[in-house]
Amino acid sequence: MADHNALPLVILAEKFASLPGIGMKSAQRLAYHVMSMDTDSVKEFAQALVDAKTKVKSCKCCQNLTEREICPICSDSERDRSVICVVEGPKDVTAFERTREYNGLYHVLHGLLSPMDGVTPDKLRIRELLARVGKGDVSEVIMATNPTVEGDATALYIANLLKPLGITVTRLAFGLPVGGILEYADEVTLFKALENRNNM
Amino acid sequence: MADHNALPLVILAEKFASLPGIGMKSAQRLAYHVMSMDTDSVKEFAQALVDAKTKVKSCKCCQNLTEREICPICSDSERDRSVICVVEGPKDVTAFERTREYNGLYHVLHGLLSPMDGVTPDKLRIRELLARVGKGDVSEVIMATNPTVEGDATALYIANLLKPLGITVTRLAFGLPVGGILEYADEVTLFKALENRNNM
After folding, report:
1. If exposure means fewest CB atoms within 10 Å of the residue's CB, which of A3, A73, B94, B151 is most exposed?
2. In chain B, which ranges are E strands?
3. What is the pLDDT of residue A4?
4. Which of A11, A35, A98 sits opposite B48 (nearest CB)?
5. Which of A55, A66, A94 sits opposite B1 (nearest CB)?
């Protein structure tokens, strides 16, 4: 915004523009929108920002984001404590929970190995995973990182650390997405689907 | 977000999703992004929200948003005080200022007439415009609302109020946008461009 604009509006627009996926034009529109909200709603929004940052921490067990010491999934006695699904981030936990089919626990790495970007094993929550597995209740660890270079590398790295502990380490199945169209599948996906074919 | 997510994160995502143009998926991504910002930045963001809402008000003269009593444009003695450009919102002031060609004053209506949506003349800052013009320094009022049904209706309504005061009321020129391609122009624009043709 040009300098004839009210300074607090310019500052707010810049804050919005610093968020991922919001350009300067959208940021200005959002700043004007805030002006049209009632004062209480704006104060609640401001409080929600501070609360999310200050009240949310990592679960002591699975490292997922939670406002408690131990997250609801880890403290749920109905959950199968012998299986741990290892994921990159909290979003992936949400994705698995949406399936309503998985009843084990999770472990959130908070990233994937990427030495070029300075993400070395000590930056991820791998130590905490080894400590959990070391306690002996776990029989299977499912590596559920994305099927990308970093996801595969991270899965392989952790699998190699876990195997000496005598634990089953599995990887998510790769194949055609359900409802997908064969002719649009990329070669690698199609090859994986062929390789992992099942009896009917 | 499902209920296994940390409540403060769910609340923050809902706040983001209540903004225009931000869906639930983007809102979740933004909420996670806030978690990765440092605490001071988050607090500054929260403060910027409250500041924009509480410190910014309408200029007593032109009704544009400002943190002062009289906005920088209205208090600028270099400006031509005999011309007022009437616009729908603060965004339009920014657009005209970017041209660096207009040196008069503005008047911000904060909306366009739309009786169907309950926006009647008393909801806009028309009374304030008449008061300004009534003081006698103004010789021309430029109606610079959008060339839409509401914009045209609002311009016509205000023009009819101003003409009895013996003031020149003008409307922005309509024609081909500069750099535009003739074959892609809509019929109405092309007709206006033909109708308002100039000597070369």
Report:
1. A3
2. 57-58, 65-66, 83-87, 105-108, 140-143, 168-171
3. 65
4. A11
5. A94
